[in-house]
Structures are given as C-alpha cells and as structure tokens.
Amino acid sequence: MAKFLLAYHGGGMPETEEEGARVMEAWGAWYQELGSAIADPGNPTGRGATVAPGGAISDGGGANPITGYTILEAADFDTAVTSAKGCPILDSGGSVEVCEIVNVM
Questions:
Q1: 20 to 30 A Cα–Cα from 55, which one of 26, 46, 75, 77?
Q2: Beta bridge partners of 95
Q3: Among 85, 77, 92, which Cα is nearest to 9's?
Q4: What is the 3-state secondary structure (H, E, C) of 46-82?
Q5: What is the spatial distance between Cα 62 and Cα 75, in angstroms, rounded to a whole number?
Q6: How far is the first Cα of the chain from the last one, in angstroms, to the nearest whole number?
Q7: What pTM did the predictor assign?
Q8: What is the pLDDT of residue 11?
Q9: What CATH superfamily is the domain 2-46+64-101?
C-alpha cells in the first residue's frame, strides 16, 4: 500500500458550538468510512512560513495555505483521490490536495 498526503486548503471554522459538533461528527463519519486506510488522522495547521533559496522568509502558503492534513494508505493514486472526494472540508468551501508520499529515506 502506498501512502498519500491529503493536504487541506481553505474551509472555515465553525461559528457556533452546534456547528462545531456537526463538523466534528462529519469528520468522524468520514474517518470511520476510511477505516484502516488512515495512517495518521492529522490535524489542522496553524501559522506557517515559507523559506526560499537564500534564506528569505515569507508567510507560508501564499494565497492558498495548508489548513490541515491527513496521511492515507491506498492501493493507488486514483483510489486516494476517490477517497478524498468524501472529505468534509469540501462542504465548507475548502479543497483537498492529494500527493503520493515517495519513500526515499
């Protein structure tokens, strides 16, 4: 099984406790659906920085920063992409970037 990084971009923070509970329930249901394919459920991300060649530092992610991640195991890239289609972040206007993790170390 290959591993894939699901990098989340955008989405919104729940504005009420009730909305927060609904969002967490949706994530829990999606994770339950994925089952053992989840290698690392991940977390939201906070402040980021980008370090460029020469050491220049800027705010991380530019116009589309990463807002969270999950590590998924799947038989192939297409399966990982299909799995990402059920991600709850899509319901709040966010997107999911799917990247195969290449083991070189």
A1: 46
A2: 9
A3: 92
A4: CCCEEECHHHCEEECCCCCCEEEEEEEEECCHHHHHH
A5: 32
A6: 17
A7: 0.89
A8: 86
A9: Dimeric alpha+beta barrel (3.30.70.1060)
Whether 89 contacts 96, CB under 8 Å:
yes
Phi, psi of 30 (to 5 degrees): -65, -45
* Chain centre to alpha carbon of residue 103: 19
Domain ranges of the chain: 2-46+64-101
The pLDDT confidence band at residue 36, using thresholds 50, 70 and 90, is very high
Report the distance separating Cα 53 and Cα 6, nearest Å.
26
Largest pairwise CA distance in the chain:
47
Q: Which helix (H) or strand (E) holds 22?
A: helix 17-34
Amino acid symbol at 48: G
Please write the tens of the pLDDT for every residue from 6-18. 999 998 888 899 9
What pLDDT, in 10s, does the model give residues 43-99?
Answer: 999 888 889 999 999 887 777 889 999 999 999 999 999 999 999 999 999 999 999
